[in-house]
Structure prediction request, 583 residues.
Amino acid sequence: MPKLTKDEVHPKIIEALLGADSDISVDDALENEMILNMGPQHPATHGVLRVLLRLDGETVIASVPELGYLHRGYEKMAENMNYFEFIPHTDRLDYLSPMANNVAWVLAVEKLAGIEAPPRAQYIRMMIAELARIASHLVAIGSLAMDVGALTVFLWTLREREKILDIWDILCGARFTNSYTRIGGVANDAQPEALAKVKWFIDQFEENLDECERLVNTNRIFIERLDGAGVITGEDAIEMGMTGPSLRGSGVEFDLRRNSPYLYYNDFDFKVVTYPDGDSLSRYFVRADEARESAKIVKQILDKMPQGEVLLNQPKKVLPHKTEIYTKMEELIHDFMIVNFGIQPPVGDIYHAIEGSKGELGFYLVSKGEGRPWRCKIRSPSMVNLQSLPHLIKGQMISDVVAIIGSIDPIMGEADK
Amino acid sequence: MNLRELIPQKLQEKFPQVKFKFVDYRGDLSVQFDKEHIINIGRFLKEDPELEFRLCEDVTAIDWAERKNRFTVVYHIFSMKHNFRLRLKVPLIGNEESDYDIDSVTVVWKGANWMERETYDMFGIKFNNHPDLRRMYMPEDFQYYPLRKDFPLMGIPGSLPLPKKE
Prediction:
């Protein structure tokens, strides 16, 4: 392997790495300090994360994560397109739970425009957001297990996730990049087949998850690799801005579904899962239990789901159905106006956040009364959670870095925007 | 007591010399003040036992593309004690490149570090006393600030040189 010279690394990164505070002393006599460049093309960094590590033997003294290898400038693009045009782009943020991103975006726009979708649409949104959380956690669990060497779990959890992708297929015709929600509702009603499939999935899910978990929960290698690796206290985690399962793994009971309820989460019975230790193992347990809680929520949603419209009838704000555009003059005019000039929410700014699968996924929108947002800021949980990576891996072995990155579960599409 | 009334009252009591502007829009409470006070007000909001805004959710900026007071820096903070979100808006007075600066709130909320780096990267707003003010996403030698309104959507040709062949 060719050696990396100093000129090939940007000088400011090296400066940050060498200047990073570390309380681990280096044995000068041996001069065994080394700088290792991990990523961006590395299978264990879950995408294109690059981490520079300063090592003393196998111990990490300091580290500097470098982001931006997947930066596509989504905020700039959002400022140059209509509100509904951005829905497909939200799929590409956290590409393991596109449905949850769709829901987050339309809820933010609806708050800005001052409209609310009909109850059935809101129930469908809750259902897809929870299923997306299950799918995302399944990948997180599987890839974490794979990072520490247990490959079978990955195959089994992906098999479960495949069933959710099949549900998406029936529901909206796409498996991966769904773009299912619309401003003022969802694209089409949930068909009885889709709901039947959801019910079937939920009924068999818990048993299958237990099966996956049994593979690793009694596996001594898995437990010992993760136990005590990458510890962060609850205080520190809040201080660093962590949210989501990574924060709950440090014993902080913070879940936006409870703490700042949106949709109808207030009416549902679920537990906010916390584990007190703050290490990688706790974060893994939180994810597994949260998937079970989500299944519980979906079960309740199926029981309670009301009948009715799935798209709001508000011609100036919501795109009408295609069949109506082709047959009625009025709808044709509204469709023309919205497509060309946008929905034009009143002047003002709002912030709306949902509990995404990685943490708090928020959108800050500023409207100047035009069809396009004047400013759109994406508060991506992956980026903020990654911020605590240097704190987590300081003093750990280099092979644990892989496991710790897996336990935070960053998605670079979201972290880099 | 309702936090929507308590926060304005407490802030005005504690900082009588500061001019506050409170806006309650669609359930989001936001407060606007001058940039010199950001550290003091931030620390007060975080440490006051009745408020405890301990989680800094987001730091960003808005480019108004106007001749006067072009940028506004926006902070979102959350109080886990009261489950309440507050938005701080700090307009940067002036329109020279040297006016686009503000004190870093990393001394109050450590987690603001990367968000401030991102804001610096995208808008060119300097955060004084920031521990590690580098670009977040763009390469180090990139000379522009992409989220400014005068940066074209298609980018600037030649601003991101391809790696040279040996």
